[in-house]
Amino acid sequence: MRFDENLAAIHGYLCGDGYVIRNRGTQSHKFYIIGFRNTNLVLLRDFRSRFKKVFGLEPIISKDLDRCKINNKNLYFVLTNNFSYYSREWEIPLLSKKNLRFWLRAFFDCEAWVENRPRQSRLIGLDCCHEEGLLQVQKALNRFDIKFNVKKRLDRDIWSLVLYGKENLKKFQKEIGFFHPKKKKKLEEAINSYVNYRWKIPLKKKELYRFVNFKGVKYGEGRIKFHSIVKASLLDLKKALNKYGIKSKLGGPWINNHGSVNYDLRIRIKEVKW
Predict the structure, then answer these.
(1) Domain chopping of the chain, boundaries
(2) Does the structure show a pLDDT above 90 at 175?
(3) What is the CB neighbour count within 10 angstroms for residue 221?
(4) Average pLDDT over every residue of 233-238
(5) Which of 168, 215, 220, 269 has the fewest CB within 10 Å, making it most exposed?
């Protein structure tokens, strides 16, 4: 098969929630079915639309809105030539980076979930019984510099793939994303729920003075120290202080007992001439 973005997405859908099956040769009535199971109408319509663009035939969405399928012998053999869609056998085709995006998005639309518990847990997770397939997904995501952890569940013969961290989630959103509307919205909410720890440094002298008194911590003899986990905040403050001739010294990174990284900026009180 010659892959484009539509066929890549179709293949991803079939590996995620699809089936390409035939009945036994001993049965008199033969069927060859290509189907996609999902209860999200947006995904069902996307599968149907892409299928028609590639093969010129339109699968039927069921009355229960839980699947989209077509019975076609020729397409069965086209789709199963060198490929399997069984849960423990599927493989990612050899795809360009552009087309790989569509395969991954379709697969994650089917299999992944988004968790958003601000200050506790924000992640994209995916469980799969096919370890080799999941490792292929991990390798594919590495092409976009998206880092996932893959671990075996202790209680079942299942492997879990987890992505977390604001920058990683933003990168997934930009490079792959979701077409599934609820997952797309939840990922956006998860990213937006992160607190912005970068300081907004005032530029006017009087406001900067108030900021120094509010954020600074006095220590030793005539010294003030500022702490932040965001190095850029202290660099902004250093630049603002330098504008008024106040010298400062940046320290860090420092790592505490919990593994958190922070920085500090130090000034002498006697140099603060407002």
Answers:
(1) 5-192, 205-271
(2) yes
(3) 8
(4) 96
(5) 220
